[in-house]
């Protein structure tokens, strides 16, 4: 039986948010949308660790206001938001052929070196949900000097959808 | 009658620059090009708020040297440059199926939180020109610690072109 | 006779690394992969100036710990790593239709303005190897406040592969 990301997400008890309502992005600007699909390439808009009613998990500077462990919680929460956006875009997580790659922006000070540990909390969740074939991603982790509302993490993900 | 981005740009009186001459990028390196199209995916090179003869609008750090309002002018100017690059790539703005998404880099100090207000000036112009179907974009706004020549804004945009 | 990037790389005596073994990314997280191809679009994972056994070339902050010339060496080394990843993905550099674009992240302090000079060392190598048709790239150079292990440079590249 093939791996079902929807079933695996259910087994994990993930609280995957619904991006149909309220629409994505309204808090940040009226000209935004959640995703675009060009052929089989799905490009997601930026995702941060905020709940659908706008509460950010662990805002602040990682390595100063926010611990690495808290930032990992925020990165994992962001990945769960990404699952919601993918489901909203494709109807089901099972419509993913494979993740392509994700830029992970970490709000952090100069000298912070543990960005990969933060990003791993997102990547590891994707691997668990989508499995070893579809769930691995290309990645870069980049220290940002600022993010809107001082979110501690932001994900910029692309993936391949079924034709 | 379908929405025409070219007509709307004309109505708005936008001074859209010509990227045919001088070629894009020569100021920064001889190995650069303006865009690449893979299938219907158009990936634009980085765009900054500089005129074709190289004068940057409002260089400097947003929130320190540059006000948010000035940064918004720079972001809108960058979006107009993007229109020029799209027209150069596709022949006409009317060849755009839809914007996909854009990374917006804002040169700013730690603690700056109003990145989305800066980026909105670019997104709102795109929405006006391309209309509600094609003109919405996915987006993330990222604080950069430095940009070449201290440009205060840089846009990294992808979009879908007509087949 | 058409330009052969493989032949040109051989003429230049480039020591292109093998990404088959050890697999890409294991140092940073077990959920990573090196690349993904969606149709003819090849999206590479982030590349840094480290050897296959993990030694970073010139780690540190460009303009402080690391000179621009050292950062250029690191950027060129990163581009050679990208050649290895492309060969690993496609079997041969000759399977590249053209580079699309690359984000170049430079670890640097506020006020650093010479990011393009660093990135040019990567772009110029690509131009030399792939030639004037396939080897030009779209680009943006972004100052990062931090990168994992204080790599001084990271490349995020997309390109078009032969169908």
CATH architecture of chain A, please?
2-Layer Sandwich
Instruction: Order the strands across the largest sheet of chain A as they lie in space.
Output: 1-2-5-3-4
Overall geometry of chain A comes to globular
What is Rg of chain A?
15 Å
Helical segment count of chain A: 3
Structural class of chain A: alpha+beta
What's the layout of helices and strands?
Three copies of one chain form a homotrimer.
Chain A: H1 5-12, E1 35-38, E2 41-44, H2 68-90, E3 96-107, H3 115-134, E4 138-144, E5 153-161
Parallel strand pairs in A: 3-4
Antiparallel strand pairs in A: 1-2, 2-5, 3-5
Helix pairs in contact in A: 1-3, 2-3
Structure description:
The structure is a homotrimer of 163-residue chains. Chain A is an alpha+beta fold and 163 residues long. Chain A has a single domain, classed as 60s Ribosomal Protein L30, Chain: A, CATH 3.30.1330.40. Helix content of chain A is 31%, strand content 22%. Chain A contains three helices and five strands; from the N terminus they run H-E-E-H-E-H-E-E. Chain A has helices spanning 5-12, 68-90, 115-134; strands spanning 35-38, 41-44, 96-107, 138-144, 153-161. The first copy, chain A, has a five-stranded mixed beta sheet, with helices on one face. In chain A, strand 3 (96-107), helix 3 and strand 4 form a beta-alpha-beta unit. In chain A, helix 1 (5-12) packs across helix 3 (115-134) and helix 2 (68-90) runs parallel beside helix 3. The mean pLDDT of chain A is 96. Chains A and B meet through strand 1, strand 2, strand 3 and strand 4 of A and strand 3, helix 3 and strand 4 of B.
